[in-house]
Amino acid sequence: MSQIAVGERHTMTYRVPENRCVPDVFPESPEFQTVPRVFATAYMVGAMEWACMEALRPHLEPGQGSVGVHVDISHTAATLPGMEVRYECTVTEVDGRTVWWEVKAFDDLGPIGEGRHARAVLDQARFEAGVNRRAEQAEVPGLAG
Asked: Is 79 designated active site?
């Protein structure tokens, strides 16, 4: 990984589609089906990770990837489908292969969430081999199928 500096910032925007609402997270859950069709926390957090992944990508060497290893996020306001969300991430710490981010999200009306996220940089082939070993142990299909 090439050097990524504390204070480095990245912004990403995402328009919330109709299928990223709370009932879509677990369609089989009756509890999730009782919540109005607003942007789901799970998808908001996923998009925060995505923004950090985008920011980290130029610093990765060929064959490297990253995985999320920590999430501490609050979701403070409901966002409706069709609204645009702006994600801002700022590097707050680099600890070896782990990069810590402050993340914030804003929709058309103001702040909707914030917190911390950490991503670990790894060798993609080694990671995939480990996933496939776990799949064999669990007797489920691995990454190859």
From this structure: no
